[in-house]
Amino acid sequence: MEYFDKFKRGKQANKKNQMSAQERAEQQRKDESLGMAIRGDVLTKVYPKAIINGVFVVPKNVRRIDMFACARQNSLKKVIMHDGIVYIGKGAFNDCEN
Q1: What is the 3-state secondary structure (H, E, C) of 36-69?
Q2: Whole-model pTM over 0.90
């Protein structure tokens, strides 16, 4: 019985943390309008809008760049990072032609 109670509580907690499809779509629209997706201190995705004249500036509140965050951004020529970056994920800049 105790196991079932823990399982049930865990399942309820997961439901609270999950976004609905509508919430995800709204979050994606916000991300695209900003040109990037940031979750906490992690840069998870860069959209072409954030790359200006081939340059992307990593915001000061970002400490980590997620895997494939900037991948396939063919207009990207230069990335300006601050000293606070502590992690760059595998493939973060894969398939950037320039």
Answers
A1: EEEECCEEEEECHHHCECCEEECCCCCCEECCCC
A2: no
Asked whether 72 and 96 are in contact (CB, 8 A), the reply is yes
Query: What is the identity of the amino acid at 53?
Result: N
Both tokens of residue 11? 């399942």
Tell me the pLDDT tens digit for each residue of 25-46. Answer: 787 778 777 888 888 899 999 9
Tokens of 3: 């196991």
State mean pLDDT over 71-78. 92
Element (H, E) at 4: helix 2-17
Report how far residue 96's alpha carbon sits from residue 94's, in angstroms, rounded to the nearest whole number: 6
d(C-alpha 40, C-alpha 73), whole Å: 23
Radius of gyration of the chain (CA): 17
